[in-house]
Design goal:
Elements (H helix, E strand, L loop, with lengths): L4 E7 L18 H8 L2 E7 L5 H10 L3 H4 L10 H4 L10 H7 L3 E6 L15 E4 L11 E6 L2 E6 L2 H16 L7 E6 L12 H9 L15 E2 L11 H28 L6 E7 L4 E2 L5 E2 L4 E2 L5 H4 L3 E4 L8 E8 H11 L6 H7 L23 E5 L2 E5 L3 E6 L6 E4 L17 H18 L10 E4 L6 E4 L5
Parallel strand pairs: 1-7, 1-9, 2-14, 3-4, 3-7
Antiparallel strand pairs: 2-13, 4-5, 5-6, 8-12, 9-13, 10-11, 15-16, 16-17, 17-18, 19-20
Helix pairs in contact: 2-10, 6-8, 7-8
Amino acid sequence: MKRPNVILFLTDDHGQWANSAYGNKDVHTPSLDFLATKGAVMDNAFTPTPVCSPSRACLLTGRISSQHGLHDYLSSGMPEVDNYPWMDDEKLLPEILHKQGYTTALCGKWHLGKESNPQGGFDYTFSTGPKYPSLHGGDHEYFENGKEVSYSGYKTDVITDKSIDFIRNNSGKGEQPFLLIVGYVSTHHPWEGQPERFADFYRKKNLDTSFQESSYPFGIQNLESTFETRNNPKEALAQYYAGVEHIDEGVGRIIDEIYSAGMESETLIIYTSDHGLNCGHHGIWGKGNGTLPLNMVEESIRVPLYISYPGQVSFPRRRSEFVDHTDLFQTILDLAEIELENKDLKTRNYPGRSFSHTLIDDIPKTHWRDFQCCEYGDVRMIRDHKYKLIERYPDGPCEFFDLISNPEENINLFDRVEYQVIIQELSQELKKFYSTYEDEVKNGLNVKELPIHNSGESWRDPRNLH
């Protein structure tokens, strides 16, 4: 049997909450709804690190930040950052699939260094380049196989066009499958300049903005000039939803291409995002770095995850297991029937597990973990189905929430006597997880702050240099 084609949609800043299949009645996502009806929806999908570059590295390496060493976003506008070989010590998903005979491509955002010529085992790249982020429409310089090219129009449309071109050029090649990573970006700020046909629809709609009325009591907003649209929260939300729906339209065009070519039964389609996003939730605009100290609120760490593979993945299905990007890495390899080499299994100490057994009816269920861990530099979190513990090393502040009675995460129970046994149990489980998997040098507790030129701001050096 031919190994499946793999299409991995890896969108920037698309929060799980901003999907109709996850209960949002305001946003219109018919293409993602279609994937939900033709596959599985993972209700408890998370990012291991709630910020761009590290989360992408987690998915593509199958390892957590405290193993691969990326702990914050890579400022691609800084040449010394963009030119650094961040992933040279890792084995990336496209490299593994390429070695197994896959034709591999990236269309869209990369954000793991060398933006003009992404390195990772690709046969073809069409990258948004180092000037990202910028306006969603208009003229923009992209990089196609390392060569600068200019296109006019919305990035979502350009990325979709290039993705479809790749599919058409690589379908019907006998037994040779392909991997296509589609990196959409229109859900990233600035929350303005989206296609007016979408923005106007949401602008006129009576959107639920009640979640924008709360505040974040455990720190301060990490305000940036590029977030000015947050000062008009209803308009910013309308623009964000417009970006979501525009991406959904692009996803639909790619799905149509697969189905019109009759390739749906031989194509594994996955949609997820690098991390979540707050659009006024808890009073926050942004993700894990939307506040100081860094946050781990649900909207920052939860991601959408749809998996469609007709004939292999039973549908429609909803699953409640805790899964994250490192598990998705293993699941993709499992569904593609690719085994990791023994030397990599021994040296890379992969923390994720394939959850393919949860997607197929006739495979017996096995024990799955009942907790999820996340990290962001020297901030670490563990949660189960009821409680969440956040520890900031070495001196706090720490937080503990009852997510059932207080889903708003604004009542800190960390100092309450009656919860100390539970807190200690979760804390020990958290320490056990990271002591099992962290690299002695690259772990997040060694993070160092570096100044960004003369701006007065700081950038968290992902290399942990001291």
